[in-house]
Amino acid sequence: MARVTVDKENHLPVDIHYEDRGSGRPVVLIHGWPLSVGQWEFQVPGLLAAGHRVVTYDGRGFGASAKPRGGYDPDTLAADLHMLLEHLDLREATLVGFSSGACTAVRYLSRFGNQRISRLALVSAAGPYLRRTGAHPEGFLEDSKLREYQRCLTDDRVSFLHRFATKFFEIAGTPASRPTMPQPLHTRVIMLAAAASHRGMTESLGQAATTDFRNDLRAITVPTLVVHGEADALLPVESTGALVAEAVSDCRLVRMQGAPHGLIVTRAAEFNRELMAFLEG
Predict the structure, then answer these.
(1) Residue 92 in contact with residue 73, Cβ under 8 Å?
(2) Containing H/E element for 273?
(3) From CA 131, how far away is CA 117, in angstroms rounded?
(4) How far, in Å, CA of 57 to CA of 42, rounded?
(5) Given the DSSP bridges, would you call strands 26-30 and 12-21 parallel, antiparallel or unpaired?
(6) Domains (ranges, CATH) in the chain?
(7) What is the pLDDT of residue 136?
(8) Contact of 103 with 211, CB cutoff 8 Å
(9) Which residues in the chain come in under a pLDDT of 50?
(10) Confidence (pLDDT) at 200
(11) Which of the residues are catalytic?
(12) What is the annotated signal peptide range for this record (predicted)?
């Protein structure tokens, strides 16, 4: 199991688990909250077959990576990614960030620049600013709702993850009781999420929800692809993906009709074609 040390806590190393496969121009896949590298199982084989070097990693607190008490703020998560890219000496790489992973990719570019990055893809992105305030009424997540999520994670994490997995595949505007994916895939999301630390889940959720990434987006200068489901029940496209695309100068927005948050699973073939065309463009 490949690991790189990105930090220390109480004199102990904070190691990030990563997988580095294939050769060619690198593609770095950044998972979303609260998942891990396993979320990319429908993308990795096609990318390898197309001749790409594919790097996936578990963010701190998730999957097989270390689970420290701290370091779940956007700057530290971006620094973790930076150390991984430096460790592997990746160049001309494409960053692909899913959901909260998009926040890490965006903060990385605004903080460390594009010396190692040639393209950016943001999928079901959690941005540009989710929090609703008096000065930002466009946000859709109120502080009271965020506190409720964090309380539920503490009181009954299993039930919360079950509801999250349902929302992950839910088609907005349809009856919530109607199943949209086979039970094994629903269970798979819960299993990936269950490997995360409680601290990592609650802290990173709060950070992603309350951080304003609008200035970070304006700093992006590489060609960018934004893919978002029109029926995303977790992160509505009008409040997230559409605004992200508006903020980036060289950007193409793909709005998938009828697609949920977890479109990398439910619409994997369609998404993979969009991603491959972008990589080859």
Answers:
(1) no
(2) helix 268-280
(3) 29
(4) 16
(5) unpaired
(6) 2-280 (3.40.50.1820)
(7) 87
(8) yes
(9) 177, 179
(10) 96
(11) 99, 232, 261
(12) none
